[in-house]
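Incident log, support desk, overnight shift.

02:14 A customer reports that sequence design results differ from what the structure should imply. Their input is reproduced verbatim below. On-call engineer (initials T.W.) acknowledged and began investigating.
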């Protein structure tokens, strides 16, 4: 009976011959069986609660973890809206859920509702220019989206049709890049093979209307997560290594994605080691494999990656990213099941534990999938096994975690904030002016019959209060996805008077 359950759980993940091999070697144990049944059949996973968090989970000193929601079975990818709501894709449910922004400050979403349903296994989601883009398993689609109200309107439109979704890695990840183009990753159909569809196991790029599709990187077995480093706009993608070469081979990867590069699969793995199950690369004369910039432990299954705005975090998070390690399913002893931080240092990329405790002797209590950072700097992590979203905040000793409540009376700075002393105010004011125009602030503050003018703002609010107002806006002002530095730039533009400068 146990073998029958294993076959049912693994059949969609690997060929029958692979299933037989896993059973024969004892690679699949009872812990793996439970996770497979949860993934493939929807069987209940563990329950996330505050008691489990307190007993099991650890984050670095100065950080705190809480349970944002515990009732989202098989929650996968995350994306914050400009209005501060959190979107969650659930490919196995065929829907996208909206978690309403926590305005009342109780640490939970103010509401949960299904935004879209009857989708074809949606995973990647992103928002651009009032459109919600969705990577379904067989197409890219989009629909009009009002971020202030958190509502869609009109029909769901096909942007890129006829994507193949057969085989093992059918999910698609989508992001809108800094160049305002659609980036799409799609995994391989198999563990190790030559693909019939040249678009599989690649990174692609399209115009926003779906035109001019091109493959920009190949040899990516299953790059589920990717993001751009904010300091140089370089594109990095996680990649899951192949199975059935032993517990510790091959490593999973972080790759620096560059147009025209080949990243090895299926002919090479790791540091360009030839795969024993494949013949020589038939295109060896035209290309050579590109080595990963960072290895993860074998079978740790890195999925979502998010580069952090480290302006409110410790200094060593200024150039960092968080990666969700989903964890092994075919290893004799389980490994992974945590979130790690990657730190770009002068000597290379350093990996550290960030959120741990999902894997213990008594079993697995969760599987991290994706990471998203809110406008206020807090970090959200999805868990598709426990059906939960966790919230991690940074609170140095002595600081309150309460969300500031803005007062209607004057709030001038008692003393200038420390960052102002060494700031390049003309440059910040210039950047703030561009932000002011790009965000359309003139529409409310300068135009119309009764504009809410900001001419005398400096007589009412200081820098700290203005930055708070941008971080936690009161209706009808929308919540813009701004970094802390961008909020400072806007504050300088609105408050700084060059004529009064020394």
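02:41 Re-run completed on a clean worker. Output:
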């Amino acid at each position: 009976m146990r073998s029958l359950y294993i076959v049912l759980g693994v059949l969609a993940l690997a060929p029958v011959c692979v299933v037989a091999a896993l059973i024969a070697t004892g690679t699949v144990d009872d812990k793996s069986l439970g996770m497979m049944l949860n993934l493939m059949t929807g069987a209940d996973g563990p329950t996330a609660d505050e008691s489990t968090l307190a007993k099991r989970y650890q984050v670095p000193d100065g950080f705190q973890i809480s349970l944002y929601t515990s009732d989202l079975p098989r929650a996968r990818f995350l994306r914050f809206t400009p209005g501060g709501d959190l979107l969650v894709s659930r490919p196995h449910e065929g829907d996208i859920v909206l978690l309403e922004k926590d305005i009342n400050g109780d640490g939970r979403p103010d509401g949960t509702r299904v935004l879209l349903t009857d989708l074809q296994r949606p995973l990647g989601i992103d928002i651009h220019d009032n459109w919600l883009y969705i990577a379904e398993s067989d197409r890219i689609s989009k629909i009009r989206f009002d971020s202030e109200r958190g509502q869609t309107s009109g029909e769901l439109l096909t942007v890129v049709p006829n994507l193949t979704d057969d085989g093992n890695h059918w999910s698609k990840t989508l992001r809108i890049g800094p160049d305002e183009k659609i980036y799409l990753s799609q995994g391989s159909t198999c563990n190790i093979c030559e693909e019939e569809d040249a678009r599989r196991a690649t990174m692609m790029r399209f115009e926003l209307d779906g035109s001019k599709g091109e493959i920009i990187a190949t040899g990516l077995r299953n790059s589920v997560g990717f993001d751009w480093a904010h300091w140089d706009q370089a594109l990095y993608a996680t990649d899951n290594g192949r199975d059935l070469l032993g517990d510790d081979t091959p490593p999973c990867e972080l790759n620096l994605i560059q147009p025209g590069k080949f990243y090895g699969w299926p002919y090479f793995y790791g540091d360009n080691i030839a795969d024993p199950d494949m013949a020589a690369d038939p295109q060896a004369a035209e290309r050579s494999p590109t080595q990963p910039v960072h290895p993860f432990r074998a079978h740790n299954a890195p999925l979502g990656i998010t580069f952090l705005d480290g302006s409110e975090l410790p200094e060593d998070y200024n150039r960092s990213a968080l990666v969700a390690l989903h964890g092994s399913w075919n290893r004799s002893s389980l490994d992974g099941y945590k979130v790690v931080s990657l730190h770009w240092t002068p000597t290379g990329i350093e990996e550290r534990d960030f959120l741990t405790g999902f894997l213990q002797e008594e079993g697995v209590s969760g599987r991290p999938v994706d990471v998203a950072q809110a406008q206020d700097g807090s970090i959200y992590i999805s868990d598709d096994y426990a059906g939960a979203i966790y919230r991690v905040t940074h609170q140095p000793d002595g600081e309150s975690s309460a969300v500031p409540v803005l007062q209607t009376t004057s709030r001038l700075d008692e003393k200038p904030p420390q960052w102002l002393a060494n700031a390049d105010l003309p440059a910040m004011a210039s950047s703030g002016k561009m932000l002011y125009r790009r965000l359309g602030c003139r529409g409310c503050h300068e135009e119309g019959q009764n504009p809410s003018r900001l001419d005398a703002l400096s007589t009412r609010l200081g820098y700290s209060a203005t930055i708070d107002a941008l971080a936690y806006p009161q209706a009808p002002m929308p919540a813009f996805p701004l970094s802390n530095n961008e909020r400072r730039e806007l504050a300088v533009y609105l408050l700084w008077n060059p004529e009064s400068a020394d």
